[in-house]
Design brief:
Layout: H1 3-8, H2 13-41, H3 47-68, H4 79-100, H5 105-112, H6 115-125, H7 133-150, H8 159-180, H9 186-204, H10 217-243, H11 246-249, H12 256-268, H13 274-295
Helix pairs in contact: 2-10, 2-12, 3-9, 3-10, 4-8, 4-9, 5-8, 5-12, 6-8, 7-13, 9-10
Amino acid sequence: MGLFARISSGAAPDNARLAGIGLMLAAMALFSFGDALGKLVVASYSIGQLLLLRACAGLIVLSPLIWRQRAEFFRLQRPWLQLARTIIATLEVATFFLATAYLPLADVITFYLASSLFVTVGSALFLREKVDAPRWIAIVVGFVGVLIALQPSAQTMTWPALIALCASVFFAALLLITRSLRGTPDMVLASQQFLGTLALGAVLIPAAPSGWITPGLFDSALFAIAGAVSALGLLCVNRSLRLAPASVVVPYQYTMIVWGVVFGYLVFGDWPSMATLSGAAIIIGAGFYILLRERLGAAPGAISPGA
């Protein structure tokens, strides 16, 4: 039995929610690391080449599991929704990396975190998940932390910032659709996302001013690591959304801002402002509050996995 199967096998609802939270936390750390690698790469290569080579590396990493579960690709549930999810996932990745080409990593992630609020509203409206008042308050407090970190003004609302906000909308839609397709195997969902970005990358490369640039050994390793990390992150987030309601696990994407600060400083020398650090502290506090409620079993109305 595989790792992800063991995580969910026979889990009680409360334990499943905690496992979902843990997997979402792991996914955010992995995605942030991959995002830092992507920002590093797009300084020298086009967005299209990043998408294509990152997708190739991810698919190579997943290929043994894809082959093992190949039969699942021929009995997809709700194929049109699967296609919509693939398109949205592709646009989300493209817009995110496009924004990182112009903005510091922590700034892009801060804009990106607005998707938590979108998901909470969407999960209540479209997935019929009940969100209790304390969790609403914690999510709103976390979003206030995002605003404090961002300090929105006419100067910060630039085109790159708007692109980052578009990425957050796409990410919210992706999470909601993934939750509604939780009967689809994780490997199928992850493979679809990589195939979508591979196709878009192949289309974008000829249109890029730089065209195709053959990477050296070091850059090839960066592309490979970015793809492998993204593959593992996708598996974590997809399994997380199968184990727990979107409104429970999605707030933990707030931890991305912490990783964005860490990798932004270590890789690019970007030191965050006091406002960013203050906002991050509020975000972390809101996330820990939700975690404490889950550990105490105080999650009224949350639906059980597979419901």
